[in-house]
Amino acid sequence: MIAVIDFGSQYTQLIARRIREMNVYSEIISCRADFTGLARPDVEGIILSGGPGSVYEVDAGAYRPLFALDVPVLGICYGMQLAAQLYGGRVKRSGTREYGLAYLNHGAGPLFLKIPKRISVWMSHGDTVERLPRNARVIARTESTPVAAFRLKEFYGLQFHPEVRHTQYGRQMISNFVFGICHARRSWSMPRFVEEEIARIKTVVGSDKALCGISGGIDSTVAGTIAARALGRNLIGVFVDNGLLRKNEREEVRASLAPVMNLKVIDARARFLARLANVRDAERKRKIIGREFIRIFEREAARISNVRYLVQGTLYPDVIESGQGIGPADIIKSHHNVGGLPRRMKLKIIEPLRMLFKDEVRSIAGYLDLPASFVERKPFPGPGLAVRIVGTVNPTRLEMLRHADQILLEEAAMLKHYASIWQIFAVLLPLGSVGVMGDRRTYDFVCAIRAVESDDGMTADWVRLPHDFLNRVSRRIVNEVKGINRVVFDVTSKPPATIEWE
Ligand code: XMP
Questions:
Q1: Distance 5 CA to ligand 1 centre (A)
Q2: Which CATH number fits domain 190-375: 3.90.1150.10, 3.40.50.450, 3.40.50.620, 3.40.50.300?
Q3: Which of 294, 317, 327, 329 would staple 31 via disulfide (CB 3.0–4.6 Å)?
Q4: Is 216 a pocket residue for ligand 1 (Cβ < 6 Å)?
């Protein structure tokens, strides 16, 4: 295992991913953690991430235990400066940041094996190392940064970021560190991970029962499937049809998952729609849906005896975003899975995916033989179509939106770049507009088409869909969906807009 100590860099996750892609397990550890736990035989190397702070603001001595573990250490940017300070060098405080590409010249050595002498690297730093610690050697420089990399025994420091793709041969540098310097073994793989998780869940749960809230998305499906492999019928997947699902969604989820797990499908459509009647405000809609979901889930849990565990599809970025995994990076949002079920229900939580990234979960879905349609599924919000109907939700509007959305998705599936689209969906606007159909005046609803590209849903750009595609979809929706006579295309990015309309 390579431990990545996080000092709050926006690239920390990238470092861990790069290493896992090399079939070596890597874990992110907060810079505020107690490092004594790292003195284990499976820890083969340490990487210190970059960070937004300045080493002047910390007591570098607090990190001395990391350097006493008898494994090689790679310090990136802030991590390098920290080591320089700790070993008696001097770091120069700078008011300006160097940001962007620089040309690096390096000497030979294990970190730069198989890398051309001159390459471009990505710099993003304020402070620089002005004086090296005793016995340290400069191993690379750029025109403006004389100490772009240094080595002191088994410590290697880089002022630039090898983990970002703008740095040429960055992966090779990380690989040189992981294999050439740490001699890490390639023992991390998805199949092995799954087998280990199945064994762990079996041991933990024993003959008790576990519930898993199934949303139809990939995370809860994969988590539930792993748990079902471990527990058989003692894992009960609960899927709630809240009446806000897409066309055929309930049947699709049932058909794909009933063979894989003990699945309970609950029809709560009437209840949800009754609670939502005449509610116009987006936040109120969301709250009502969240609360209702918890009530139904609690009721179901109470009906089954011996339930002691709740399986959730929490992912690594969720753990990190909610501030549990890392150091000083800002808390972006408090993650809530299926409406914050655990605290109220007093069930013990099992999160088989809490160490995984989304693309790793996708590859597990393939390994578990889940249908390809699941693996390729686009994200769908918990409050469902209710946040895609601006204003009040009722069965007529839901039916209209469902139909329009189905047409859009049918057509979208034929797009060459469908896989690279993050989300594509229809929105129903509570807006009348005049039209003419078959010589008659109409006064019907407007439907908006939204399609975005994104890496993580945090920022997004609208997709430049081909005009002939938009034309086909628009014609079909207006002709086939009763009640819609106009189609518009949303050309706004996030920020300033959000992906969903509500
Ligand atoms: P926004 O609209 O905030 O959406 O730009 C970002 C991503 O999150 C999804 N989304 C949700 N997912 N529960 C969820 O599980 C929710 O309440 C929720 N709201 C938005 C949205 O579809 C997009 O992928």
A1: 30
A2: 3.40.50.620
A3: 327
A4: no
Amino acid at 449: I
Fold of 2-181: Rossmann fold (3.40.50)
| Phi, psi angle pair for 293, to nearest 5° | -60, -45
List of residues 6+ apart from 143 with CB closer than 8 A = 102, 103
pLDDT of residue 366: 86
Banded pLDDT at 237 (limits 50, 70, 90): very high
Q: Is the CB of 325 under 6 A from ligand 1?
A: no
Nearest ligand 1 atom to alpha carbon 378? 24
Residue 104 near residue 118, CB atoms below 8 Å: yes
- Is the distance from the beta carbon of residue 500 to the nearest atom of ligand 1 less than 6 Å? yes
User: What's the CATH number for 395-489?
Assistant: 3.30.300.10
Same fold, 2-181 and 190-375: yes
Distance of CA 390 from the midpoint of ligand 1 (Å): 15
Q: Is the pLDDT of residue 252 over 80?
A: yes
Q: Ligand 1 mean position to 391 CA, how many Å? A: 18
The tens digit of pLDDT for each residue in 419-475 reads 999 999 999 999 988 888 888 888 999 999 999 998 777 788 999 999 999 999 999
Residue carrying structure tokens 């730093």:
125
CB-based burial, 64-74: b 16+ in 10 Å, e otherwise: eebbebebbbb
Active site residues: 77, 161, 163
Q: Would you kindly state where each structural domain of the chain is located, as residue ranges? A: 2-181, 190-375, 395-489
Ligand 1 atom 10, closest CA: 381
Distance CA(282)–CA(28), nearest Å, equals: 36
pLDDT, tens only, 57-94: 888 889 999 999 999 999 999 999 999 999 999 999 87
